[in-house]
Amino acid sequence: MLTSWRFAGMLLGVAVLSAGCDKSATSGPGKPGDETYAKKLVGVWEGSPEGEGAKLGPFTVEFKADNGFRFAMGGPSEKDQLAFTGTWKVVKEEGKTVTVETETENPFAGLGGAKDGKGLAKTEKKLLSIAFEDANSMVMSKVGEKPDPIKFKRKS
User: Fold this and answer.
1) Which of 85, 94, 115, 116 is deepest in the core (most CB within 10 A)?
2) Which domains does the chain have, with CATH numbers?
3) Do strands 137-142 and 123-134 pair parallel, antiparallel, or not at all (unpaired)?
4) What is the pTM of this model?
C-alpha cells in the first residue's frame, strides 16, 4: 500500500513539473511566439531620412533570422553604398515597439579622429528603438541623445 502511495505521489510530482516546464513559444497571454514584432522585424527594409540626412540617400536595413545585420546608405546598387555589417539582438519588446542592440564593423576603424589618438574602434554598438506602424512599415530611431527617427517600408 505504501509503495502505491509513493508511486502516486511521484506521478503527481512529475505531472506538476511537466506542466510548469511547458516551453511553448509565447510572448504573452495567448500570443504565439511567431507573432512577436521581433520576428516580424526579419527582412529587408528601405527608408529615406529627412532634413540634413536626405543627402545621404536611401537607407537599407536587413535584419536576418540568424541575427545577422546589414545597414547600407547611398546609391541604388551595392557598389555605390557605404555598408555596415554585424549582428543584432532583441533587448526588449513592449507592444509594437522593439528595442534592439546592433554591433557592426566600423569600415573606418584605425583611422584618426578618436580622442585617445588610437583611431576609431573596430566595432560599434548602437541601441535602436523600432516602432511598428503595421506589418510592412516601421519607424526606427537611435535610443539616446539624438533619436533622428526614420520611416522604413518592408522591401522583402
Assistant:
1) 85
2) 31-154 (2.40.128)
3) antiparallel
4) 0.69
